[in-house]
Each structure stands twice: as C-alpha cells, then as structure tokens.
Amino acid sequence: MEAAAWVQVDDLEAWALNPRENDGVPVERVARSILRFGFVAPVVAWREERRIIAGHTRIKAYRSLMAEHGPGWAPRGAPGPGYVPVRYHPFESEEEASAYAIADNRLAELAAWDLGVLDDLESDLTGLEDLSRLDLGWTDDEWDDLHGSGEGAGSGSGGGEGGEPGEDPRTSSWTPPEPRVDIDVRLHAGDCLDMLEALPDASVDCMVTDPPYGLSAPPDMAEVLRAWLDGRAYEHGGVGFMGAEWDKFVPGPHVWRECLRVLKPGAHGIVFAGTRTVDLMGIALRLGGFEIRDVVHWAYFSGFPKSHDASKAIDDVLGAEREIVSSIPSPGRQLQDMSGGGAGENKWTGTVYGGPVTREAVEWDGWGSALKPCIEPAILVRKPLEAGSIARQVLATGTGAINIDGSRFPPGDPAWLGPNEDLPTNHGESGVAGTSYSLGARDPMQTPGQRLGRFPANLIYCPKPNRRERDRGCEALDTEETRNTHPTVKPVGVMRRLARLILPPGGSVLEPFLGSGTTAVAALLEGASVVHAAEAEEVHVQISEARIAHARAYPEEWATDWTEDEGQE
Predict the structure, then answer these.
(1) CA nearest 521: which of 174, 175, 187, 192?
(2) Nearest to 502 by CA among 435, 407, 566, 389
(3) Dist CA 185 CA 181 (whole Å)
(4) Is residue 148 part of a domain?
(5) How does residue 120 score in pLDDT terms, banded at 50, 70 and 90?
(6) Does the pLDDT of residue 214 top 70, yes or no?
(7) Are residues 65 and 104 in the same domain?
(8) Domain containing 509 — which CATH number?
(9) 387 plus 479 within the same structural domain
(10) In this structure, is residue 58 part of a structural domain?
(11) What is the largest distance, in Å, between two alpha-carbon atoms of the chain?
C-alpha cells in the first residue's frame, strides 16, 4: 500500500456496494471529529478505479463540513480546500477489494475497550476545556451504557460453572462498612491552619468539609483576585450568615494549599459551598492546586424564600401605606430554630398586608428578588495524580478512584430524584423497555454493579436534619443550652453518602471546618480510622464532642439513612 497523499475529493468515486450504513448520526460524529482534529486516518482507495474502498463515512462527513462552512474551508493539515488524504492500494480484482472492505469494517468491531485505561485517558484530557465526549465519538448516555454493560477486559455475560445459562454468577465485591466506634478523632480547637501545619505531607486519604460559605456583602472581585494571586489572604470586612464573624468570606487559596499538601496524590475532596459563592470557592480551590472533577448538588426542597416584594417596596418608596390585614405567628419552626427559639416558642410574627396601592405597584405586583433555595453545591476535587494514571495511583497510595458501587442508588431509593420504576435493564437484550438503572434478572448483560442500583449521580436528595438528629448527644452538654445551636447543620445522611464516595476502605478523613461534628459522625459510620479536624468556635467544639461521643456509644441510632418520616420538623 502506498503512502498517503492529498487528493481532490471530487476525483474519488464512492463504492455503490459499500456494505456499511453510514448516514445520519455516524456522519455527524465523524464530521465533529474532523472539525476538531482533522483527518487522522486516510481514506483507502483502489488506484485503478479511483474508487473508495474504506472511508465512505469520512468522505460524507467532509462534504457536509464543506457545505456548512463554505467552499473555502479546509481541515487541519490539508494543503487547501477540497483535499482529503488518500492511501491507494493496488487491489488485484473486484473480489479482493470487496473482501478488504468487509474485513476492514468487521475488524474494527472486534476490539473490546479496556475501561480502566479508557477512563485514565479521559481523566488526562481535563486541560482541553472545550473538549466534549461528542468529540471523542460518544454521547453521555452511550458512555454510561459502555461502563454499565461490563464491556471490556475481564467482563462477560456469565453462563459459567455454578450458574444457569445466561446468568452472571459474579457479585460485587463492595460491602457496607461497619461503624468504627474506635475512630480516632483528632479535634483541634482553633484555627485549621495550626492543625494542618502539624500534619505530614501526603498523609491523609480524603477530605470532606463544610467550610464557611462567605454569605456577606459582595466583595470587590479585582481586589480579591489581586490578593489571591499575590499569595495573600483576602480580608473581607463585615459579617456573614446570621451575623456570624466566621462566615464572612470563603477560605482562600492559602488554606486549600495546606489541605492539598497533607492529602495523598490522587486523594479526592468534597467541599460544600453556597449557591451565591460557589464560584469564589471554586477559584480558591483551583488556585490552591486542586482539580475540579464535578459538582454534586444536595437537594432538600425545604429552604425558606427570602425574596423582596418589589411591588410593596414601590409603594413604600412612593409613600403609600398598605392596609394591615392581620399578624400571624410563624407557620413553622425553621425561623424559630434559626433565631434561637426552642420548640414551642413563637418569637416571630408575620404581618399580612393588603394589595398594592399605587398604579406603579400594581404594574409590578408579583415581582420579587430571589428564588426559593432548595439545593447546595458540593465541589468534588482531586489532588493531581503523581503515578501517571488512576490505576497506578491506586496501587501506589490507595487513592485516585471513587467508590462507584458503594454509592449507587438502590431501587426505590428516595435520594434519587429520577425515574425509580422497576423495569429490566436494556443492556444486552434488545426489544426490552427499561433503563440503565433497573435490575432485571432476565438480562444476561447485567453487571454486578447494576444489581446494586443506579450509577451514582451528581444529584442527591436528602431532607434537612430534624431537631432530633441535630440535638442527638447534646443533652450531655455542660452549657446553658443543651441543644445544637450551630445554624447550618448538614444531615448525617448526605455526609455519609459523600464520604462513602471518596473514602478508601478504613482510610483517614480531613475536615478543617468541623462545625457541629456531622462529618466526624459520618466518617465513623462509614468505617474511617482517623479524622483530622479543626473548629475555631469553642461552643461548636463542645457540640461536636458531644455528638461524636453519642455516635460512639449508640451508633445504631445514627446508622440508618434518613427516611421520609425523618425529615425536617
């Protein structure tokens, strides 16, 4: 076969007997690849006939790009418009050319994917920010199906010894961990930087943290970036959520650099953030050296709307007073809890006003300033690999991978907000309705992971903790109030799921912002051996210690995930 040469596309003839269908989606995918990478593989043609033998889809894709971008467009590396790379071959007969065409199409189908290597390669492409999976030839659904079908080295459809024909006798190796009541919680009462400074390099397996969201007045972003890029801490005036000094701004890159230092290469972290400041948290993490892998959204639906009534404000500005219809007590306990009132106390009253008074207020009636909050983002980060690939990093340090099977959504799991119908999976069995989630025994292609549940997603539903969960263990506090007064307590259920996703078996956890101790309780229930934690507020240190002590003594009271009747009270 001759070396490839650039040939005018109009000098080539399509083969009328091409056995491969290549209209529609295949042409669109190949066109996307040519647009990004150019022609990576040449077309094969029969010199005597100038007939295309292999590469019809590439030619159709190229013609579609010329039609879309105009006659002057040329792919990367081409000498000019209208040229395609061709490798001529002197086939001896029509039959030989036909045989090669069949073999070329068939042999491309035979190779299986090594999913471990494939995932490693994809993870190394994060620097190509405008690259999508479609550029690689997959939709996201096809990528998920590839991983869920068990295709690749070491997979199979079962039917071996010990099982019925068509069954896959394998089971997943993942089993839920036992609570670790002897967990070593090393809690530093003070600044997290002091705790971090005492830790050795590359000594911790993962990080799960709920840091300050910085819900204060918007900063001067140019000033913030100048400080961060100069390596300085940015000092923000004012206060944060509910007037809290500790919440006035997000932790800066200098904090995350120290966290990065103590984590092992490839270690993952979960970092919660506020919806209004997740951009700041993400920039700080990136400048601290972390890779951002994803954002998990915790949904809870019970947030309190804090929208400003534009119509009433207009009446106020114009000096028009609305009629007061009535004053009523708070409709629930959320505001009581947040303001410090205990159950049964009504410290807040709401005033109900009549309708708009002025013409301008009537025009803007029903307009406001904010949405009802019902999600909080948690940024999934990773310390860069040092061993060259995920597989090598896992072998070297036990870090670099996430726990897919342990984090799946079982059938009917309320944490999954998508379809929960119990239909057989459609992997490997054509003509059967279903989803990649469902667990049908009829399907021979079903993997061990699919029998556990749906592939973990970046969305988790879990109600906010009720008063019973918040206060558990606080009756032992030697303080004026024997309850959890922390204003932003996360549910143990959601922290368990996130810890489970990134915690290596029996590994250690870093939590530089412990708050009221929920991360430590979750780590205990997920079998962690050590938690390195810090908390600057003394009252929160005492609450954390009380809740952790209760979890050690009565893990069974914490061990079950939330249910619908365990929601917010």
Answers:
(1) 187
(2) 407
(3) 10
(4) no
(5) low
(6) yes
(7) yes
(8) 3.40.50.150
(9) yes
(10) yes
(11) 96
Assign 156 a pLDDT band (cuts: 50, 70, 90).
Answer: very low
| 526 & 388 share domain | yes
On the question of pLDDT at 348 being above 60, the answer is no
Query: Do 298 and 349 reside in the same domain of the chain?
Result: no
| Tally of domains within the chain | 3
How far apart are alpha carbons 263 and 158 in whole angstroms?
Answer: 40
Task: Say whether pLDDT at 509 is over 90.
Answer: yes
Helices 278-287/253-262 angle, 10° precision: 50
- Give the residue from 74, 92, 111 where a domain finishes: 111
CA distance 81 to 83: 6
Tokens of 337: 């809890």
Domain closes at, from 82, 111, 140: 111
Q: Do 378 and 496 belong to one domain?
A: yes
Integer CA distances (angstroms), 264 to 24, 194, 236, 267, in order: 47, 19, 31, 5
Residues 4 and 249: their CA atoms lie apart, in Å, by 60
In the structure encoding, which two tokens stand for residue 184, read together?
């070593």
pLDDT of residue 222: 93
E-strand spans in 394-495?
459-461
User: How far lies 507's CA from each of 247, 276, 504, 524, 548, in Å?
Assistant: 29, 33, 5, 11, 18
Residue 361 token pair: 């207020």
Q: For the chain, how far is it from start to end, CA to CA, in angstroms?
A: 76
Query: For residues 23 and 294, which has the higher predicted lDDT (pLDDT)?
Result: 294
Asked if residue 388 and residue 502 are part of one domain, the reply reads yes
Range of the domain at 544: 184-302+374-408+458-560
Helix ranges (DSSP H) in 440-537 = 448-452, 467-471, 492-502, 518-525
DSSP letter string, 94-138: HHHHHHHHHHHHHHHHHPPP-HHHHHHHHHTTTT-TT--HHHHT-
Instruction: Map residue 334 onto helix, strand or coil.
Output: helix
Measured CA to CA, the distance from residue 34 to residue 60 in angstroms comes to 11
Classify 238 in phi/psi space as left (phi over 0), alpha (psi -120 to 50) or beta. Answer: left
Q: What whole-number distance in Å separates Cα of residue 146 and Cα of residue 151? A: 6
* pLDDT of residue 271 exceeding 90: yes
Beta strand pairing call for 263-272 and 375-382: antiparallel
> What pTM did the predictor assign?
0.67
Do 87 and 232 lie in a common domain?
Answer: no
Asked whether residue 490 falls in the same domain as residue 535, the answer is yes
Which is nearest to 356 in space by CA: 322, 383, 402? 322
**In-domain check, residue 545:** yes
pLDDT digits (tens, 9 = 90+) for 36-62: 888 878 888 887 778 888 888 888 888
Identify the residue whose tokens are 């042409």. 27
Q: Does some domain include residue 165?
A: no
Cα 185 to Cα 308: distance, rounded to the nearest angstrom: 44
CB-based contacts of 364, cutoff 8 Å, min separation 6: 310, 311, 314
DSSP state of 510: E
Please tell me the distance from the alpha carbon of residue 405 to that of residue 425, in angstroms, as a whole number.
17
344 vs 456, which has greater pLDDT?
A: 456
